[in-house]
Amino acid sequence: MELLYKSTRNSDTTVTASQAILKGLAEDGGLFVPTMIPKLDAGMDELAGMSYQETAYAVMKQYLTDFTEEELKSCIARAYDEKFDTEEIAPLKKEDGVYYLELFHGATIAFKDMALSILPHLMTTAAKKNHISNEIVILTATSGDTGKAALAGFADVPGTRIVVFYPKSGVSPIQEKQMVTQKGDNTFVVGIRGNFDDAQTGVKKIFGDKDLEKEMASAGFQFSSANSINIGRLVPQIVYYVYAYAKLYAAGDIKNGEEINVVVPTGNFGNILAAYYAKNMGVPIRKLICASNENRVLYDFLGTGTYDRNREFILTTSPSMDILISSNLERLLYRIAGEDDSKNRQMMEALVKDGRYEITEDMKEKLADFYGNYATEAETADEIAGLYRKTGYVLDTHTAVASRVYRKYAEETGDTAVTVIASTASPYKFTRSVMDAVDKKYDAMSDFELVDELNKISGVAVPRAIDEIRNAPVLHDTVVDAADMKDTVKKFLGI
Ligand SMILES: *Cc1c(COP(=O)(O)O)cnc(C)c1O
């Protein structure tokens, strides 16, 4: 059966999966959602024996129904290959009674590789399928990790170009170095004077610019988005929740049907939304635990039913979660509003106009699947140090936020269900903050000295992604005001 996609702001028109992937955002500014969330058609006993790639096929085929088996399997094979440093792709590590699902074994050592290593293949396949001859221009705003993961995914992929905007003072030194050293003639990296929301708002404006769209088309280009609003990002992320459950079952750590909790360090709400989809597909998940840093807009929302972005933007040691507008939340809102597009549209308009909106009591009740909390900077550092001293395992700052929030949840509720924490980055990606949390004595060292120290204390090999940038030359040094983003893109495309 063909699964179609509709916009959260207009339920009437539908597109195929490949069209939704190509468009990224719907014409009306809404996000594409499947007209229904399918139930897993593979049984747990079957899934328990599957490799990551086989699980990916079993899940993704239910969403991307206009891809042939051959197309989808080829995309999967090209994505989840030796770019990952382990055959398991997403291994589970049990530490101090909790399972950390390590999603950082790909090319850029953060979880965004899980989706961005397959998205370029889904996109070029989708382009062929829809007889598109334009070159696809990927435009992305990043709070750090998306940028590099998208660059790595799209670099030198024929028929594509990629432009990445990042907040010049809002990413870690290693994140920045990873991006500005990116090779590939089709890549372009630009720093913005402003924060992530400025970059994201700028990108959305460019996407909505009809005149630019015409100019682009006559020059043989069309935009697409690699941001987490693209359904081609969301669907591959559902896979690892199914996989984690199946592996726990295969190892005898849970019984078939036993409920687990899932904890996700959250920014744009993409990763946790994928877990929500997994739950709706039938994976027995009790609570979806949404962990925020000091930018606790989601914690406040889940507690009060009011989303309010009118607050100070705080730069934290978990920069990929420094977000005040969680774009993917719109997909959840639409669903808990009973797929009412006009209700959703009103809330999104209020968000633009007033920076806030309120949901109804009815909708609030449907948030019962979620638990939200946050960790302060001090708590995050303490979590890294504490777990390291107890077990020798070193968390990155984002995962540490999740780990601390899980502790708060367990204390508050007494819930002892098996719990999986999405481990979203390697500690090597945020070495300075991680080592500072372990011991202040490291503060005086250079970034790469810290890498070697982290290797010593954790015993985890230095990832290729870090070794590669040690001596790599800076290839991108453009910095612009957020207001000049459009001109910057035009210049890059030569139009
Ligand atoms: C992007 C990112 C997050 C947040 O994920 P969302 O899907 O935006 O909620 C958390 N941790 C790391 C390391 C990330 O790169």
TrEMBL record:
Gene3D superfamilies: 3.40.50.1100, Threonine synthase, N-terminal domain. The keyword Cytoplasm does not apply. CDD domains: Thr-synth_2 (cd01560). The modification N6-(pyridoxal phosphate)lysine is found at residue 112. Signal peptide: none annotated. InterPro entries: Thr_synth_N, Thr_synth_N_sf, Thr_synthase-like, TrpB-like_PALP, TrpB-like_PALP_sf. Keywords: Pyridoxal phosphate. Residues 5-80 form the Threonine synthase N-terminal domain. One of its GO terms (cellular component) is cytoplasm. Its EC number is 4.2.3.1. GO terms for molecular function: threonine synthase activity. SUPFAM superfamilies: Tryptophan synthase beta subunit-like PLP-dependent enzymes. Its cofactor is pyridoxal 5'-phosphate. One of its GO terms (biological process) is threonine biosynthetic process. Residues 94-421 form the Tryptophan synthase beta chain-like PALP domain. Belongs to the threonine synthase family. This is Threonine synthase. It comes from Murimonas intestini.
